């Protein structure tokens, strides 16, 4: 721990009279109790710089959209789903070393109806593609997809007639490169997705692909 002398605006370096700090503290307490300010015989209100600081320290403004995007991006419900060797690395993100629960994404769902994130961990065969697409279509809106590993994004080392890249049959939000990507790389991809959802909540795949109006009907 490092001790530093506080300056007037909380900056280090300039000494502030301890008595001033005490008066400020008493003023804040008095204000919260609705009483009168210490050392000034006036009603409990602040002015100028004091008022600015008081408001700055106590209020947070946001929009409903930002709050919803913040909540969504911190509580993805990934589908419990794996395709090939990459899935072994994906499982590790839920283990004690990576601990995906730190970010709020540990609720892997067994049903696509309860999931909003699908991680395609492994190679996709042409036979498997329609099944994955059906799972994706059954997921909750809004939903996101991560392509994990070289196979899923570009058919990887195989590159033969039996495999298909995920982008060919469904929208992918984030690609995680590697063969296999380590759990840290997948976490990096999930956190990139979090940034996307937080900073640009309108940039869902339907908007990006011009597919607004194609939502599944109940
Ligand atoms: S990218 Fe590598 S580890 Fe992942 S599915 Fe393909 S071969 Fe397996």
Q: How would you describe this protein?
A:
This protein has helices spanning 18-33, 48-58, 64-73, 86-92, 129-138, 150-154, 183-199, 205-208, and strands at 117-121, 144-148, 174-176. The chain has 218 residues and is mainly alpha-helical. It has two domains: 1-59, no CATH class; 68-208, Rossmann fold (3-Layer(aba) Sandwich), CATH 3.40.50.12280. The protein has a three-stranded parallel sheet with strand order 1-2-3. α5 links the parallel β1 and β2. α3 runs antiparallel to α7. It is elongated. The mean pLDDT is 83. It binds iron/sulfur cluster (SF4). Iron/sulfur cluster (SF4) is lined by residues 84-86, 122-123, 149-151, 156-157, 179-180.
Question: What is the structure about, briefly put?
Answer:
This protein is mainly α and 218 residues long.
User: How many strand segments?
Assistant: 3
Query: Which ligands appear in the coordinates?
Result: iron/sulfur cluster
The CATH architecture of the largest domain is 3-Layer(aba) Sandwich
- The coarse overall form would be elongated
How are strands sequenced across the largest beta sheet?
1-2-3
Task: Examine the coordinates and then state which fold CATH places here, giving the name of the CATH topology of the largest domain.
Answer: Rossmann fold
Which features characterize this protein?
mainly alpha, Rossmann fold, single chain, about 35% helix, binds iron/sulfur cluster, about 220 residues, elongated, 8 helices, 2 domains, three-stranded parallel sheet
């Amino acid at each position: 721990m490092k001790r530093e002398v506080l300056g007037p605006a909380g900056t280090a370096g300039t000494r502030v009279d301890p008595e001033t700090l005490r008066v400020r503290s008493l003023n804040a307490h008095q204000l919260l109790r609705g009483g009168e300010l210490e050392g000034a015989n006036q009603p409990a209100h602040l002015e100028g710089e004091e008022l600015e600081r008081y408001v700055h320290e106590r209020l947070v403004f946001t929009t409903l959209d930002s709050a919803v995007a913040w909540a969504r991006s911190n509580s993805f419900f990934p589908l419990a789903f794996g395709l090939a060797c990459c899935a072994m690395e994906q499982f590790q993100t839920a283990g004690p070393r990576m601990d995906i629960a730190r970010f709020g994404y540990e609720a892997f769902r067994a049903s696509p109806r309860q999931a909003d994130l699908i991680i395609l961990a492994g190679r996709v065969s042409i036979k498997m593609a329609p099944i994955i697409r059906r799972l994706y279509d059954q997921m909750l809106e809004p939903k996101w997809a991560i392509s994990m590993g070289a196979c899923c994004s570009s058919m990887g080392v195989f590159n033969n007639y039996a495999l298909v890249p995920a982008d060919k049959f469904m929208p992918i939000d984030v690609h995680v490169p590697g063969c296999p990507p380590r759990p840290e790389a997948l976490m990096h991809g999930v956190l990139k997705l979090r940034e996307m959802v937080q900073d640009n909540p309108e940039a869902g795949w339907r908007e990006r692909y011009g597919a607004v109006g194609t939502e599944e009907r109940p």
